[in-house]
Amino acid sequence: MVFPLLQDISPNTVLLDNALAAMGGGLSAGITAKLLYPKRRVLAICGDGGFMINCQELETATRYGIPIVVLILNDNAFGFIKW
Q1: Per-residue model confidence as pLDDT tens digits over 7-55
Q2: Is 69 part of a structural domain of the chain?
Q3: Residue 61: is its pLDDT beyond 70?
Q4: Residue 26 counted as domain residue
Q5: How many whole angstroms separate alpha carbon 3 and alpha carbon 39?
Q6: Alpha-helical regions (H) of 21-68
Q7: How many domains does the chain have?
Q8: Ramachandran region of residue 24, left (φ > 0), alpha (ψ -120 to 50) or beta?
Q9: 68 located within any domain
Q10: How many CB atoms within 10 Å of residue 45?
Q11: CA 21 to chain centre
């Protein structure tokens, strides 16, 4: 689990899209967070499958100059689906 490794998690600073096995919202949520709070550092933590669903949003962030850091966790699977 990543969250115990984080030293300071303030209230209302973590967005999770893991309810109902949703996929692909991490990058978009990170871009939106950076637009809403431009002075804060934003880290979008995405799974490899979820990232590939909306990886085209990286082009949008680049085109509009939105500085965001993306961490991709590779487990070679789509959410809870294991082949």
Answers
A1: 666 777 777 666 556 778 889 989 999 999 999 999 898 888 888 888 8
A2: yes
A3: yes
A4: yes
A5: 22
A6: 26-36, 48-53, 57-63
A7: 1
A8: left
A9: yes
A10: 19
A11: 15
